[in-house]
Specification:
118 residues; alpha+beta; ADP-ribosylation fold; 24% helix; globular
Length: 118
């Protein structure tokens, strides 16, 4: 995989909680699978549309892959054609390089708002 950055999608509530605690919280899916689900830039829109249907806004937390490499694995996921980045460890807010806002577009799918929150 050649992507320099990977992303963690978070709801507004999850991102606010992470800022208070200093740690990116695990979702039920993360707990079930035993790792933190991440996406590349090319995967992020599909991931948002598949797993965050009940949300109007998300935050895409950008991490430098080099900071995570020791616990980052690229693995095939069911119903996906490419390998996804999975992180086996704790993600601290201090490792977040940038935060991008994602909003639902008029047709209902997510898009990335380019102005960052950080």
């Amino acid at each position: 995989m050649e992507d320099q950055f990977v992303y963690r999608l978070a709801t507004e509530e999850q991102w606010l909680r992470a800022q208070k605690t200093g740690t990116i919280q695990l979702t039920d899916l993360d707990n079930r699978d035993g790792f933190i689900h991440l996406s590349t830039a090319g995967q992020i829109i599909l991931t948002a549309n598949l797993h965050f249907t009940g949300h109007l806004r998300l935050w895409a937390l950008l991490f430098d892959r080099g900071d995570l490499e020791d616990k980052l694995k690229w693995e095939k996921a069911p119903n996906r054609w490419d390998k996804l980045p999975h992180y086996y460890g704790d993600l601290g807010v201090g490792s977040v390089r940038k935060v991008l806002e994602m909003k639902r577009r008029p047709g209902g799918s997510f898009g990335i708002v380019t102005k960052g929150a950080l």
